[in-house]
Amino acid sequence: MFTSLLYLHTKQSELAQPTPATLKDLQLMKVFKAIQQKSIQDLSEIFKHPLTNDSEIKYRQAIFQDLVRQPVLTTVNQFEREFLGHQRFKAEISYHYDGEIRNYELLIILQQNLKSLAKLLKALDQLACQSAGLRSWCLYLHKFFQADPTKQLQAEIVDLTQKMQDLHYSLTISGAKITVSQKIDQGMPLNDLLKQSFAPLLNSQSVVQNDLIKPIPQESGINNLQVLILHSLAKVYPAEFRELSRFYQEYFEFADPVIERVAQEFNFYTAVIKYQQQIRQTYQVNFCYPQPVTASTANTVTASFDLALITMAPPKIITNDFTLQPEENFLIVSGPNQGGKTTFARMVGADYYLFQLGMPIPGKKAALTIKRQILTHFERQEKASLLTGLLAADIERIYQIVTASDQQTLVIFNELFSSTAVVDAEQMGTTILQRLIKKGVTGVYVTFLAKLSSLPRTVSMQSQVSIQTTKRTFKIIRGQPNNQAYAISLLKSYHLTAAEIKRGGADES
Amino acid sequence: MKVELIGTNLKWQSNWKPNQLQKNIIADLELEPIIQAASDDDQLIAMVFLQSLFDPIMEKTDLADRQATAAFFLEHPQIVRKIYQVVQTAIANVKTSWWFMGKESAIAAFSSCISACQLYLSAIEQIMALELDQFQLPAGVLKLNHQLKQAFDQGKLAKMQKLLRDLKKSRAYAVNSQLTAQLDSQITQRRFIHWHKWLAPLALSQRKVTFEIPIRDDNALNALGRLENRATWGSATTLLTVYSNLKKFFAELELQTAWLVGLTNLAQKLSGEFCWPVYQSALKTENLKNLVLLLKLNGKEIIGNCIEQKNSNVVLISGANQGGKTTFLRALGQAALLAEAGSFVCAQNFCLKPVKQVLTHFKREEDQTIQNGKLAAELQRMADLVNCLASSALVLLNESFTSTNEHEGSIINYQITKGLVERQVLVVSVSFQYEYWQLLDQDPEIRLLCLRAQRRANGQRTFKLTGKAPLKTSFGLDLFWQKFKTS
């Protein structure tokens, strides 16, 4: 039985619960905020609950793949604009004080909703959607339209709308005083009269000023004046308006729970697609749908980037690849500061997280394994003054992570123990890594300690600097640490190489 | 309704300004005093009159028509003055009463148009009261009279005025309406209810409800405003068309009567010594006088000059300094401009072949101050002139290219003159350059007419130009000696 576009079978309680620290460290809240801005519905609950099995992820991925096709997307976008959910329209209708308006408004909204559903169904049928989700949705709608209550409602709407639109009336306006009456054709159309009287002055061709006043468009929607007019009109045509009132009593609570739900769920898909298309166009980058793989297969993503960085609107984006072979547990990322290490670590974490939301992730191609949990620890360097207390808290947190981790855990560590002595830090780092590797945990470890990458089942990755200049390339690639090149080039940029200091001294003396 | 009082298809602009070339001509030919005399400090007349000098009539019949209208009004100046005054008052009143600014409000346009049209129509009433029928009318005036009668006679004007009055009096109107699918009222255009009928109650059988929008309900009042705008759009557009046609009619009538008033002003300041020019195949005039001099000397005896072009294509004027050369050149330029504008000229007779442009290249004092060098500036001015040269022109050169030595100046002058002649231009050149004359004289393509300022044996000038070749000496020397000997 079809109930949702977001979940195939899973119940809310079976979903994963990421720790607040993870979302904060990966800066995913920024990303979700950017997506949320493109949606009317509140999507935060969806973002907070990653999926935990392949079929669920594939269910969403397939729907995304259907929806990114432009004609499908256009259709759905239009549906989202036109369809008014039950809660929303109840609030909107209750806002009106006058009975006539409420009654008529309901008629219009229900008519509009049925129309937009029918239009959506017709379009989706024609567009031959592949995803199980959208196909079930179409089947559901077909059944809905064939059901008797729906047919009955449609017939009533047609009948009543026709009756209302057949009401002809006259407005006689004098200042702020308005008389509403049955149509009387009082007086002569003024424009005809003018054209007749001023005929000799109207035959000329050369009128430039004619386009001085723009045609005034017909308004839609309700204003106070129309409320007053309808109020009076109800007295001029009481029978028709009584019927409208009956319709209101009967159909105010008319709503189909599945349709209501799905109408909201579309928002998640369209918001993500909008967000993703915008980034694509701005930076000429790719998004892809990672293939879910088992832990015994390599996890790999090519040409990925950090979405949190995009929220800062950088001028351009550097993409990075990563691969973890089955025999590799940890990526040890080292290299110059400000070289993109943290961004890289965040990117890996985000890729896994977004993959588990069933979303397209940044990158050209990807294969990832579902993780039961993603645990992170990012050191906050600016708080180094609180050293002792902080170190204790850090160690406590890291201990918890190590304890809670298992084979289905992704761990991301960023610059642990950077404020302690190198020998101590190396020892602590080595211990933690060994423990985690023993448990079969995978992850990323960002560090300035080159020695850690010599551990078994780890891979060393380096942030790159162009040698001659000190310019960072923000590329992180596999390779053994070589801090010399960067240090020299950095010194050069400050004229602090040994040779330069020597020369400078010579100059001064 | 197009006003064709002094010509069909006039393209005069009410915001016309002379371009640089025209400014040069105005300065070179001393047109300012003439414009001053014609305008009597009326800026519009000054602008129109000046503009007319740069919009030459090319056809014989058009010239005759404009001259006929001009002659009629020279005879009856009070009529054209009256029309001009009525038109100007109407335009000024419309300007002050006009408050419709934007493109949004049909209501604003509607009521602005009513007031404006009322003002215009009352001006038309006044013009029609002049009863032009009583005169023997020339074609242009006849046409205007006919237009007015056709549009407004036989009660048509009264009917328009009544409708406008009624609209002003009664703001009440009705619209028919239907509910739209969006619950709004789809209304028709407004229907006119005569204010008498507005007082009468609706039929008893009709169900009706009347309400009044509460004063503080801004939302409803604004919505009413928009509804009124929609209902009024068609009528407002029609009235705008009427207004805009009237506005155009009055603007044209204003410009054309302004020109005629200018001409009557000018004629009044000259004591009758003028003729109506004629278009013929060559330039020919007798007793041509400088208009500025006439205005300045106010009736004193002024020597007129004669010239007969026959088949020549270059007129070379040489002779004594202060012998009247420049005065004559200016008189010729002024007369040509006035003639082609349809005005009279101050001469016994004046024939010319119509040209699209009268252009001038006069020696300039200010050229000396230009850093580029005087010659460069002179050449630049000539280049500008040649750049905008039309298919037919009269070019007046006054001591051009004297800022260099005579040999060089002569060659420049000759080359340019020859070039202009080949562009079918009639060149009238004042120059002392003897070599320039020689070069022109030897050129088989150039048919030269030479005029020389007369100088009597005692050095007294007669300010008469005679058909003689230049002498090798210029007479600057004797001016010098005159000064030095007598002192």
UniProtKB/TrEMBL annotation, chain B:
InterPro entries in the record: DNA_mismatch_repair_MutS_C, MutS, P-loop_NTPase
Pfam families, A to Z: MutS_V
Cross-referenced SMART domains: MUTSac
Keyword terms: ATP-binding, DNA-binding, Nucleotide-binding
Superkingdom field: Bacteria
GO biological process: mismatch repair
GO molecular function, one term: ATP binding
Gene3D superfamilies named among the record's database cross-references: P-loop containing nucleotide triphosphate hydrolases
Database matches in PANTHER family: DNA MISMATCH REPAIR PROTEIN MSH1, MITOCHONDRIAL, DNA MISMATCH REPAIR PROTEIN MUTS FAMILY MEMBER
Protein name, as recorded: DNA mismatch repair protein MutS domain protein
Organism: Liquorilactobacillus vini DSM 20605
